[in-house]
Structure formats: structure tokens, C-alpha cells
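Records of this kind hold a single protein each, on a pair of labelled lines. With that in mind, the following record should read easily:
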Amino acid sequence: MKMIFAIVRKEDEGFVIERLNKEKISVTKLSSTGGFLRKGNATLMIGTEDEQVDTVLQIIKEECSRRQEVMMNPAYSAGTKGPVMGYAAPPVTIEVGGATVFIVNVEQFIKL
């Protein structure tokens, strides 16, 4: 048995959970934040049999594909604590999506 921890973007979590549930794979969601953009994430805890690991990984890969997104950054000036009103930095194209996945062996599983 394996425990899969998948850290995905908040925008992708629902699609992953729905697909896993269709395959009768249970998942527990933990809300989390972090990363470069400090955006909302979800950490999915998925306990599964060894034979289903490839299926889980394929679902995560399909639902969390990397894509380009345009981000509008407010302009900041040295010494200020917030954006400078009336000025805008140029939009930046960034790559979003994907997932960080950890797979660990489960020594014992007990459902109470």
C-alpha cells in the first residue's frame, strides 16, 4: 500500500478529486499555501494499493497540466509597503499548474 501526497493548485483540486472519486479512489484534501506566487494550494492525501499508483499519477498529470497564465503585477516603489497607485508594471507571463507528488510506503493501514 502507498500514501500519495499531491500538492496541486487550488484551481485544479476539484478536477483531480472528481476523477479520483470516479475511479473509486478515496482522497482527503488539506488546504495549504506556499510556493513562488503564494497562491492557494491543496495537499491531497491519497491512500491506495500499489497497483493503482500509476492510475492516480495519470489522473494528477492530466488534471494539473502546466499552462501559461498572464499575471498583472502592481508596481512597487522602494520604501513603500504597498503598490503605487496609478502606475502598473507590465504584465508577466508565467507557467502555472503541475503538481508536486510524494509517494511513501504504508507499513500499516487501519480503518476504525
